[in-house]
Amino acid sequence: MPVTVKLPTILRKFADDQARVTAEGATLGEVLKDLESRYPGVTKNVLADGGGLHRFINVYVNDEDVRYLGSLETAVADRDVVSILPAVAGGAP
Amino acid sequence: MNGSTPPRFTEDQVQRYSRHIILPNIGGRGQRKLLDSSVLVIGAGGLGSPVAMYLAAAGIGKLGIVDFDRVDVTNLQRQILHTTADVGRSKVDSAVEHLRAINPTIEIVGHETLLFSTNVFEIFEGYDVIVDGTDNFPVRYLVNDATQFMGKPLVYGSIYQFEGQATVFMPGQETPCYRCLFPAPPPPGTVPSCAEGGVFGVLPGVIGSIQATEAIKIATGEGDTLEGRLLLYDALHMDFQEMKIRWDADCPVCGKEPTITGLIDYEQFCGVPARPI
Q1: Is B2 within the bounds of a domain?
Q2: In 3D, which of B15, B12, B88, B82 has the Cα closest to residue B53?
Q3: Which pLDDT does position B275 carry in this prediction?
């Protein structure tokens, strides 16, 4: 089923500069796999080599951090919004 | 001063802060709390500019500002605390001068130094609230850990290109810290800096103003802060969003069984060489 995926600025270059894209899957892992097949490279800095989520990127289903849900096994439903959020440090110079 | 004694103000203070004093939820008592409070702003740059200017104007009794950099012409597109005439000056000198021009009746302290594990406790000691406007991960983790160990509220803000983040970390029982939100820094090179990626000039004005708002609410005890909520702002699409921030029972600093109980080498932790704040 289709879910909306919100991409941070640093990942939009993989998705024709789109801020919101659509992907399909019943779990977060399936959605990310489908996202990668549509936009190659987009999950390179989201998924670690071992297949889990990197610790410096947060992924939310709606407003919940998936680390406190089921991580990649988190179930997603129609109209859910998946947000990918990297740590950013910018502020001063 | 006990609860029943009316707050005392000078004639200048009554005039200067009149719009706060007549305001519900602030009033004379709230203004007195602001005048009795102390806030340290880390970084006199994009975020630090609006934070420090609004806090000075609001009458924070003691306002500190930390920076080590010099004003560069490329800063002026967003760092509104500095002017064209300040290019080449120390940011702290420029900041202190302009903040004194906004409000000469409060104490303004410049700390012209890098922030290290060796000086952070001494500098933070003199302040009630810490506002983070740095631009690099080692200092962000240093500031988080120091505020956790010292039990001081931390007002967090961060920006990149058109997007910003803000929240409040209040040390306490089972309350989240920055490490609960971002357990590890990104590997060097994966997230470009503002110098490499550019930044929308007005963006730090929005995020910095939100940080100033939160610092004032912490100082007065009024309203609800962003504690436990991460506010995300996308200037390009004018989109505000909130995410939940959970306390991580396994957090190495604030979890049930902390493994980091003192300051560490943050450059090494982040895999980057030390950089000025």
Answers
A1: no
A2: B82
A3: 53
CATH number at residue B218: 3.40.50.720
Mutation target among A43, A49, A64, A88 for the B interface, most CBs of B within 10 A = A88
Six-digit token pair at A51? 């297949």
Quote the minimal CA–CA distance from B184 to chain A in Å.
5
Tens digit of each residue's pLDDT (9 = 90 or more) over B195-206: 667 899 999 999
Question: What is the C-alpha to C-alpha distance for residues B67 and A93, in angstroms, rounded to an integer?
Answer: 10
Q: Do B182 and A91 touch (CB under 8 A)?
A: no
- Looking at residue B176, its pLDDT comes to 97
CB contact under 8 A, A89 and B46: no
Distance CA A9, CA A22 (A): 16
Superfamily of the domain at A2-86: Beta-grasp domain (3.10.20.30)
Beta-carbon separation of A85 and B277 below 8 A? no
- Residue B131 forms part of a structural domain: yes
Partners of B190 on chain A (C-beta within 8 Å) are 10, 45, 56, 86
What's the number of domains chain B is made of? 1
Question: Rounded to an integer, what distance in angstroms lies between the CA atom of residue A47 and that of residue A31?
Answer: 12
Report the complex ipTM.
0.91
- Contact (CB, 8 A) for B133 and A92: yes
Residue B259 CA to residue B250 CA, distance in Å, equals 9
* Per-residue confidence (pLDDT) for residue B1, from 0 to 100: 47
CA distance B105 to chain A (A): 26
Give residue-wise pLDDT tens across range A17-75.
Answer: 999 999 999 999 999 999 999 999 999 889 988 878 988 899 999 999 999 999 999 99
Tell me how far apart the alpha carbons of residues A93 and A89 are, in angstroms, rounded to a whole number: 11
The CA distance from B153 to B144, in Å, is: 10
> Is B275 within a domain?
no
B136 CB-side CA count, 13 A: 22
How many Å apart are CA B57 and CA A12, to the nearest integer?
39
| Gap between the Cα atoms of B176 and B224, Å rounded | 16
